[in-house]
Amino acid sequence: MNKRDHYEVLGVGKGASEKEIKRTYRRLARKHHPDVNPNSKSAEAKFKEITE
What we know:
- There is one protein chain.
- With 52 residues, this protein is mainly α.
- The chain has helices spanning 6-10, 18-32, 41-51.
- It is built from three helices and no strands.
- Helix 2 (18-32) runs antiparallel to helix 3.
- It is flat.
């Protein structure tokens, strides 16, 4: 399994501030959370990728 760059996974630039990274992580985690998308395997996979 290839590990992607954390910045790439979140879709932020390498120069992103800590605040921007946290905000983007939280937004994506809520969007793809299994409790919000109980029947979506793609959302579950994206959530796992985000939280690695």
